[in-house]
DNA sequence: AATCGATAAGAAAATAATTTACATTCTGAA
DNA sequence: TTCAGAATGTAAATTATTTTCTTATCGATT
């Protein structure tokens, strides 16, 4: 069941004028919307109650109260994120803001992610003899290491690189047995796009997790689109991080499931090593 | 406004017998309670509707619908995702599972994070002349780099290390002007705990983001507790990642706000370099 | 420009949900 | 046992919501 605010944003253009007015108010003042009766909300939007009911139906709810419940379930979390410039100063406000943005970002990804692409990338990973994860810049290099971190636990051969030159050189040594996964938030990493093309030129499979339609997306055979609105406030932490982590999570999780039997043994071994070495409590997280 | 489920548990003993029966049902099946009408809920608890109204009032709500809204807002609603073993096989199920766990993990963090500690760590970071972020193992080393990635953008001096030996050697060179931030999911990283103690021994400030009460937490002066239930299924991706990322996000965000004026300039510079070099569209994410 | 069809939106009626007011039934202490 | 007070239910009143039906609006077509 999708987040109602996300649905609201997505369907905004398909709403009638009155409905958009309701949407506006809901969006602007969720605290009001969540507590108001249908009559109050209708009055404030200057429409009739039946229009509000129709508005709820259009959003996939059976009734106004179902709408309110769904709104309450997401409003709490999402409130702050969508409003561009909020005054934030106390620690509690920072916490709420960070959480709100993270949640909202994940919701946006959830709404837009294409299962077919996740499936295809996972399948291709399973076929590869060796996998290279490429990403540069503070964030995307992190993602490359995350890919490595996740896949090696499944007993796959995988290397990560954040170095453009290494990426390019590596790409030119590949063959049909190899696969390159490119990571880029912006999708404008020219060097990465080049490396992907070179790799493909030598027969390697290429995939990316990046902005849809971007340079990097176009340079790869498979591309999982992660499209997120990024604010303009320079102080704003890039909440895209959560979405990329989740995207990688999805791919890795599916790979794990698809090769379940052969994946358990490497994990067991890693775990045993860590436990033996560190202490006896084997509930600890794999590899910290 | 307190969480309604928490209120429910706290006031449990002061409720009458019928009210306790209602509480029971709400607690057992929140999904039902949140969607049911007062009549349905009353019927299921085998009480009359007015008793339900009285129950709501006792919990500090003015009406049944206010109660429902508060219930829907309760973070506990999200915890259904934490239920251990769901059979997952299709890509869509994987996506839903990954998203659900990520959201739940974030909810748990949101519930438990201590704003005072976030504030203290941020304040201490602002005082330090140099910051070292230490973490090892696939996940925690990622977090160390995340700390570095976030703080250098604010114009702070920061280095990350995932190497135990380097951490220990570095720790022994520090002074009052330095600060070490230790990252560990499990909190059982003995080498990290040692490095933190050594650093403190030489007068450096020490903080950690790790499991509460753990070895690493005890070894540091300030510790932001991130306590999450970790499943036992070895195939399960560690959703703790999201919570740690968020925890770091909170600290970095607060640091950014506290030194707002001086933080904008470094960010502006980083951005200008990237834009000039890469392309003209300056909406791209800082550092990809 | 006139007309048709489709969609949107409101009015009023019908229905359903919730609350209030009041009556009854318990419970436990004197 | 009896009585005060709390707890609960019944039924009425109120309020909220939805349905049905009508009117208005807009755009396309002739």
From TrEMBL, chains A, B:
Domain of life: Bacteria
Keyword hit for Transcription: yes
Transmembrane stretches, start-end: none
Alphabetic keyword roster: DNA-binding, Transcription, Transcription regulation
Gene3D superfamilies documented for this protein: Glucose-6-phosphate isomerase like protein, domain 1, Winged helix-like DNA-binding domain superfamily/Winged helix DNA-binding domain
Limits of the HTH rpiR-type domain: 2-78
Residue span, SIS domain: 121-261
Protein name: MurR/RpiR family transcriptional regulator
Organism: Maritalea mediterranea
């Amino acid at each position: 069941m999708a987040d109602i605010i996300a649905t609201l944003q997505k369907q905004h253009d398909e709403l009638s004028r009155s409905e958009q007015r309701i949407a506006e108010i809901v969006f602007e003042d969720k605290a009001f919307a969540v507590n108001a009766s249908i009559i109050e909300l209708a009055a404030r939007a200057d429409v009739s109650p039946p229009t509000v009911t129709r508005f709820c139906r259009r959003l996939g709810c059976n009734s106004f109260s179902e709408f309110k419940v769904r709104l309450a379930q997401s409003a709490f979390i999402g409130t702050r994120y969508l409003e561009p410039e909020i005054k934030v100063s106390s620690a509690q406000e920072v916490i709420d803001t960070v959480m709100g943005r993270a949640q909202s970002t994940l919701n946006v990804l959830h709404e837009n992610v294409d299962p077919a692409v996740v499936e295809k990338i996972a399948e291709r990973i399973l076929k590869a003899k060796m996998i290279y994860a490429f990403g540069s810049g503070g964030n995307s290099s992190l993602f490359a290491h995350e890919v490595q971190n996740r896949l090696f636990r499944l007993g796959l051969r995988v290397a990560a690189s954040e170095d453009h030159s290494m990426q390019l050189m590596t790409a030119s040594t590949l063959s049909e047995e190899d696969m390159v996964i490119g990571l880029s938030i912006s999708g404008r990493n020219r060097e990465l796009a080049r490396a992907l093309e070179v790799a493909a030129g030598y027969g390697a499979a290429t995939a990316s997790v990046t902005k849809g339609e971007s340079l990097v997306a176009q340079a790869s055979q498979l591309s999982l689109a992660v499209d997120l609105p990024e604010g303009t406030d320079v102080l704003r932490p890039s909440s895209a991080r959560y979405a990329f982590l989740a995207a990688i999570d999805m791919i890795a999780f599916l790979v794990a499931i698809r090769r379940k039997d052969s994946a358990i043994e490497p994990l067991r071994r890693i775990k045993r090593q860590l436990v033996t070495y560190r202490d006896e409590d084997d509930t600890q997280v794999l590899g910290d």
